[in-house]
C-alpha cells in the first residue's frame, strides 16, 4: 500500500481529491459566512463540521480509490507474471525486439537453441543472428513487418558456436516500438525435406537409368522380333520367286531344245526376250516390295491403314496360296462389309482412306505378327482335322473417331489358361525353339505405347480374333486407290 501511495497514478488521484475537497470547503465556507454572518458561534460550529465532514469524505474516498488502484496493480502484476511464465516456459523460442531489430527480451528456449546468454542476446540485433543466405530474405521480411505489423517467414540462423538452425518466425506488434516474434524450430523439417529432395533426385536418376535399360531391352526385343519376321518373310520371298524361276527354267530348257532343233528365228527370240525380261522385272519388283516393306519410316508420320494392310497381304499372298489358306479382306461401307475380290485392291467404300499416325514399318510388323499367329493356329488345327480348310478374315471399319482392325481365323483359338499371359514377353505356347514369345508383346507395345491405341485377343465360335483400335487422324472418301 505504501509503495502504491507514492506511485504516479495514486499521486494524481490524491492531488485531484485534495483540490476537489478545498473547492467544496471554499464554497461551503462562503455559504456559511453569508448565512450566519451575525452569529459567530453557530458559524464556527458549522465551519468545523464542514471541515470534519469533508475530511471524512476525503479519507473515505481516498481509501476506496487506493483499494481500487491496489487491486488493479495486483491484476497487472499477475498478468505480467503469467506473461513471463508463458514466455519462459514456452518450448518454442520467443524474441521481443524494437523496430530496428534490437533484441529487448528472449525466453530460455531461444537462449538454449542459439547458445547465447540473456545478456549477450540483449546487446544484439536479429540481423546479427541470420546466416548469410538468409540476410536478403530477412531484410525484406522486416521491411514488410514494419509496414504491415505482421511477419511469417522461415529463416536460417547461426548459433554462437557457428552451427546453423532454422526458425519459422511469426511476429505481431505489441506496442509502439515493440514486436513479439514467436518462433518454431524447423531444423529437423528442413533437413528432412532436404533428404527427401535428395532421395527424390536419386530416385529420379534411378528411374531414368531403368527407363534407359528398358528402352535398350525393348530395342533388343524388337530387333529379335524383326529377325524372326525376316526369317518368315524369306520364306514368303521363296514362294513369290518360285513361279517366275520355274518360268525362266522352262524357257531355258525350251531355248536349248529349239536351238538343237534349228528352230531359232527372230520372232522366237523376240518372244523369248519379252517373256524373260517381263519375268525378271517381276522378280525385281518383288525385291523392291520387300525392300520398301522394311524401309524405316520417320516417327509420327501419317499413313493409310488399308494401304498398309493390302501391302502386307500382297506380299504374303503366294505363301498363303501355297499353304492352302483363304484370306479375305473386308472394309465396312456404311452398315455393311464389302469383301475384296482381289486382295491387292481395296473396295470403293465410305471409309477408304483411314489415316492414323505412327510408324508404318512397325504397323506392318504388327499385322505380319497377327497373320502369322493365325497361320500357326490354322496349321496346328489342320494336323488333327482332315478336309479342314483354313481361313483368315481381316475387317476394317471406323467406330466413332477410331479405326477398328480385326484379324480373325478359324484355327485352334486361345487356351483359357494362357489368355492372361499372351502379351507377356518371352511367353509362348509353341514348342521350344519354334517361338520367341515376343511377337504379341511387341505388338502391344507398338499399338498402346507408340500409336496410343488398344489391342485385345479373344476367342470366337470358329477360332480366335485380334482387334486393334487406333485413333483416326482423318477419314476421306476416295473412289480409287493408288498402290
Question: What does the model show?
Answer:
It is a single chain. By secondary structure, the protein is α+β, with helices and mostly antiparallel strands. It has 3 domains: 2-88; 90-185, Beta-Lactamase; 296-476, 2-Layer Sandwich (Heat Shock Protein 90). The protein is built from 11 helices and 14 strands. It has helices at 2-5, 8-35, 40-89, 108-114, 118-122, 135-148, 187-261, 266-293, 305-323, 360-382, 439-450, and strands spanning 94-97, 103-106, 150-158, 164-175, 178-185, 301-304, 326-333, 336-339, 353-358, 391-399, 402-409, 454-459, 464-471, 474-476. The strands form 3 sheets. Strands 8-7-10-11-13-12 form a 6-stranded mixed beta sheet. Strands 2-1-5-4-3 form a 5-stranded antiparallel beta sheet. α2 (8-35) packs antiparallel against α3. The longest helix is centred in the middle third of the chain and has 75 residues, at 187-261. The chain is rod-shaped.
Amino acid at each position: 500500500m505504501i509503495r502504491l501511495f507514492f506511485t504516479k497514478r495514486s499521486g494524481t488521484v490524491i492531488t485531484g481529491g485534495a483540490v476537489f475537497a478545498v473547492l467544496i470547503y471554499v464554497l461551503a465556507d462562503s455559504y456559511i459566512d453569508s448565512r450566519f454572518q451575525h452569529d459567530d458561534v453557530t458559524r464556527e460550529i458549522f465551519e468545523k463540521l464542514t471541515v470534519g465532514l469533508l475530511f471524512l469524505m476525503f479519507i473515505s474516498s481516498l481509501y476506496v480509490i487506493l483499494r481500487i488502484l491496489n487491486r488493479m496493480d495486483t491484476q497487472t502484476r499477475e498478468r505480467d507474471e503469467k506473461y513471463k511464465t508463458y514466455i519462459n516456459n514456452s518450448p518454442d523460442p520467443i524474441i521481443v525486439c524494437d523496430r530496428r531489430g534490437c533484441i529487448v527480451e528472449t525466453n530460455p528456449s531461444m537462449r538454449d537453441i542459439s547458445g547465447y546468454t540473456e545478456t549477450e542476446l540483449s546487446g544484439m540485433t536479429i540481423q546479427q543472428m541470420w546466416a548469410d543466405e538468409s540476410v536478403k530474405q530477412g531484410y525484406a521480411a522486416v521491411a514488410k513487418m514494419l509496414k504491415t505489423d505482421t511477419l511469417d517467414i522461415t529463416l536460417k540462423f547461426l548459433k554462437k558456436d557457428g552451427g546453423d538452425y532454422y526458425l519459422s518466425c511469426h511476429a505481431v506488434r505489441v506496442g509502439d516500438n515493440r514486436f513479439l516474434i514467436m518462433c518454431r524450430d524447423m531444423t529437423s523439417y528442413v533437413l528432412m525435406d532436404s533428404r527427401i529432395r535428395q532421395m527424390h533426385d536419386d530416385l529420379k536418376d534411378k528411374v531414368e537409368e531403368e527407363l534407359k535399360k528398358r528402352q535398350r531391352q525393348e530395342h533388343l526385343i524388337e530387333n529379335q522380333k524383326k529377325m524372326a519376321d525376316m526369317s518368315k518373310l524369306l520364306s514368303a520371298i521363296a514362294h513369290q520367286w518360285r513361279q517366275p524361276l520355274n518360268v525362266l527354267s522352262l524357257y531355258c530348257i525350251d531355248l536349248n531344245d529349239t536351238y538343237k532343233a534349228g528352230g531359232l528365228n527372230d520372232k522366237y527370240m523376240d518372244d523369248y526376250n519379252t517373256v524373260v525380261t517381263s519375268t525378271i522385272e517381276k522378280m525385281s519388283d518383288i525385291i523392291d516390295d520387300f525392300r520398301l516393306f522394311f524401309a524405316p519410316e520417320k516417327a509420327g508420320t501419317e499413313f493409310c491403314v488399308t494401304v498398309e494392310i493390302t501391302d502386307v497381304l500382297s506380299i504374303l499372298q503366294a505363301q498363303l496360296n501355297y499353304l492352302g489358306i483363304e484370306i479375305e479382306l473386308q472394309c465396312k461401307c456404311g452398315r455393311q462389309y464389302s469383301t475384296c475380290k482381289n486382295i491387292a485392291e481395296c473396295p470403293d467404300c465410305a471409309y477408304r482412306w483411314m489415316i492414323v499416325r505412327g510408324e508404318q514399318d512397325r504397323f506392318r510388323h504388327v499385322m505380319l505378327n497377327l497373320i502369322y499367329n493365325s497361320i500357326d493356329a490354322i496349321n496346328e488345327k489342320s494336323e488333327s482335322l482332315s478336309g479342314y480348310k483354313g481361313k483368315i478374315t481381316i475387317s476394317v471399319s471406323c467406330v466413332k473417331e477410331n479405326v477398328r482392325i480385326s484379324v480373325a481365323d478359324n484355327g485352334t483359338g486361345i487356351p483359357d489358361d494362357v489368355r492372361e499371359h499372351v502379351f507377356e514377353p518371352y511367353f509362348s505356347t509353341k514348342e521350344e525353339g519354334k517361338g520367341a514369345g515376343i511377337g504379341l508383346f511387341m505388338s502391344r507395345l507398338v499399338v498402346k505405347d507408340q500409336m496410343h491405341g488398344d489391342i485385345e485377343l479373344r476367342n470366337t465360335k470358329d477360332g480366335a480374333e485380334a482387334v486393334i483400335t487406333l485413333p483416326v487422324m482423318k477419314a476421306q472418301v476416295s473412289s480409287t486407290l493408288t498402290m
